[in-house]
Structures are given as structure tokens and as C-alpha cells.
Amino acid sequence: MKRFTALFLLTCLMVSLPACNLEETSTISKDVSAAERVASPTYPAGIAFDDYESRMANRNSNPVSRTSRDAVNAFSYKTAAPILNTISVNGCYSPLSLYYALALTGTGANGQTQDELLDLLGASDAASLSQDMSNLYRLLYADNKITQLKIANSLWLDNEYRGEPVSFKDSFTQNAASQFYASLFKVDFAQPSAGEAMAEWIAENTNGTLKPAFAADPEQIMSIINTIYFRDEWMDRFKVDQTKPDTFHLADGKDVTCDFMNMAYNSHGFSKGDGYIRSALSLKSGAQMVFVLPDQGVDLMALVSDPDNLKALFEGGKATNGKVIWQIPKFSYDSKFELSDMMKKLGVTAPFEQNADFTGITDHQAFISMISQNTHIAIDENGVTASAFTKIDFAGAAMPVDQAEMILDRPFLYAIYSSPVSVTRVEGQSDPGTPMGNLLFIGICGNPLK
Description:
nine-stranded mixed beta sheet; single chain; alpha+beta; 2 domains; eight-stranded mixed beta sheet; 10 helices; Alpha-1-antitrypsin, domain 1; 31% strand; 24% helix; globular; 19 strands; Antithrombin, Chain I, domain 2; 450 residues
């Protein structure tokens, strides 16, 4: 069987709103034994991988400003740094998934609750945030034989709390459906069937790689769920017969033996900074996977200690070009994060208080009880059809005068960036070692065998 998937990245994020006891007028019936789908979005049409004209038209029709892109990436570094510092061995976090879930939540908030959310998101107002997220959605969305980047949102609504009716505002649900491509479901959170239905929806939208379990919770009135499914192919595949076992040095001083993929470029971009070296591997969609390798003796966790350091790891350093030798361990693992405490430490506290203002969603008193995220990541050498694309070398560049060894035989940092959404740079030049798109996933591999 031909395999064409080189990279899987999947994430599920759930924001839950429980309720306090207030009287409301019900607008939907209570007869729900499982989940009843109320509305489904019409997703953007998939653009063929080699349809460059349609891809350019899609980009022109859905402008994403540098300000908006920078806000998403600033949020990514700000939230990733504290999360990465909690990782003991392996961990993968999706900033974009959290951003979408919080953006949708913020459109239904008011007062101080909304101010704190918008401030963290770097957004000026809910209306422009909705439009930016809608444009970014259509720009990032991909579903063809080579690449999949599928973002899905959903609202799960219970119309009853402790025997009293709960109603949700049409302005919120309609905006969620039209701007965030959200599916709408009505459920009874007191029944196990609600959790089962949400888990089934997540599995469906992550190609079966994430299958969480949710307990019944009669205190809950709504859940907002975002999923991201990403699949792409290496621009230049790793040859299976070049994969060899070798030693990976763990942070605790122990060694493990795992399979390493091997490749060398005679001319390739890389950057060197204080205590690290960075380079990237291109994916066929124009996305890239960026690897940051600490210098020998440098503590990886010290490098990711704060957002500014983290940004410098991916955007700083001295860029150069030369021979790059790659040795990357194959790895696959799952991660789970509870993100509420991180949000509070970043100054977002009002949404978690019982007097939170979500009156744009419902007039019933509601607050966020939990924010959690599950992810899965796997990389291997498979996924490139030899005849599909021709390798493009750096034409017209100076001959290599430097060399980098990306021998990832010790704990390292990685990130997945989308294809560029804003390509304007100084003098129109792009640094091959510096990502230009949105940060989709970021993580640490401390043991490829875990």
C-alpha cells in the first residue's frame, strides 16, 4: 500500500462553561438522549495541490494583515513558554487551537471578561476578530491529496440547568457558524451520551487519532471545542534504507537507542544563535517544520524560559547558508494539558469567576470552569511520492562556506508553521531559517521512545 503521510499533528481543545442558577426562557426542547446536530457549516472548497491560480485567488480574497498574523504569533509565544516549562520529557502544544477557541469565546463576552480575553489575543474588538479568524480559516484550510490542514469548531449547548431553562443568543451562534465555521449541537450534559457524542466528533475531525473520554457533568451548560488536523509531506523524503538505529542522549544522562532518519543538503539555510542552532525542513504545502538544537551542554529548558527567549529561538540568530547534515529521530506521542492556571497567570481571570460576563452568549450566569488540550504528533520518513514534486535547489546562491550538523541526538525543540500568510519583509527577502507563517504546533522531544 502506498503511504503518503509524512507528518501528523492533531489537537483538541475544549472550553467548558458551567452555570449558576438564574431563570431563563427556553428556546429549544429538552428531549435529547444523545447529541442532536442543529447546524453544520459548509466548509471551504478544497483547492487542488497544483492549482496555483486558485490558491492565489484564495489568498487575495482573504487578506490577513501583518498586525493580525503578528498578534497570533505573539499569543503563541506568550502561551507556549509557560506550557513548555511544564514538560518533563515530551510535549506538543497547539497555540492556534487555543487561539481559535478563545477567540470564539471572546465574541460572546462583554465588559472586563471580554477585555481580558481580547487583550491576550491582541485583538481590538470582537467584530474585527471574527472577520480575521474567518479570513485566516479560509486561508489556512487545505484538503487535497497532498496536504490537509482542517480546522473544526463546535458548540455544544444544554438548554437546562437544575431544572431551569437556559437559552443561547442567536447573534452568538450565528456568528460562530458563519465566521468560525462552527457546528451546533444540543445535548444533555447530565447524560453520558453527551460526552460520548463530543468524543466521537473529535475522533471524526482528527482522523481517529484522538479519542478522549468525557464524564457526565450536570453543572455544565456549554462546551466550545476546536480541533486541528494537519497532514503534509516532506518536500524531500527521507530514504527508508537510510534510517539507522543510533543513540539519543536523555536529559538525565541516560542513553536510549532509537531509529534516526538521515539526509544531507549541500546548500541549505540555517541560523546560529547564543546556545543553539536552527534549521527547517520544507513541506509540500509551503509549511515547514523548524528544529532548534541546543548546543552541547546547554539546558533546553533554560532556552525556553520566557516568551522573548522563545521568539528569539525561532526568529533570531545569524542566518547563513551551507551544508546541513540532518539526523532526526522518528517519534510519536500524545500530550494532555490543563490550561486554566496558565491563562490566569497571564492575567485572564474574570472569565473564570462566577460573575463572569458572557451575556453575549446567554443571559444565564456562566463562567469558564476548565480549558484543556490534547494533542498527537508523529513524524517518519514516509509520505513523499517520488514523481510528485521535483526537488528545488537554491539557484543562484553563493557556494556553501559553512556547515551545520542538525544531529538531533539530545532533547530538542520543534515547531510547525503554516505556509506564509503575509510575505512582506524588509527588501522583500525571506530567511530560509526563519518561519513566516502562523505557528500551528510547538513542542519538545526529550525521548523519542516515550
